[in-house]
Task: structure prediction
Amino acid sequence: MPVKGGNGDLSGDILKVIGPVMIGPSSSHTAGPLRLGRAARALLGEEILRARVILMGSLAATGRGHGTPQAAVAGLLDMASDDRRVPDAPGIARDRGLEFEILYSDATGAHPNEIAFQLRGRAGGSVTMRGISIGGGEIAITAVDGFEVSITGHYPTLVVFMTDRPGLIGAVTRAIGSRGINIAFMSVARKRRGQEALMSIELDQAADAALVEALRGIDGVFGVRVIPDTL
Result:
């Protein structure tokens, strides 16, 4: 009898035992930061022009020896964790015209494996993202543009930027449900009542381009980003 993992197959449990397929040396200091870089790239939604990467806690203290800077840049280039070019990612980024800066923070109170990205796109967009590398290649995205979120990377995820006003959450969820897509987890954050808000919606199925465009067409929604579950 097959044993199912958390995603309906063996992969979830196997990863917990042996870790991800990756270019090493460390799943927490290499694979995790790479996946977070890919997530930040997806949140920007366009080609990256400039990037600032801030390593905190253990990533700042020992990241150089574990290849954390190279891994983070590789993620911004959308490389997979087992891509043999990961160690050469900084040079590849420069060749492609991606300007980047790696900073090491000694800020107290940070998670032991915390990383922040500040990205500017070639089309003028920008995004900031914070996340943590939990271990075994697992990640959690904890903040997007200053909004607190909790995104695992286990599910296809919609990030919807919107105005905080009555009816908008319902309009977004109805648009998703009308396409037969189930919402696994959802959270809403706002900085101040009646101003900007952010919905993070983890789905049981990937959102197609038609759904993304439908969400962008809702009055009061001013941005939609997709984070795939294949980081």
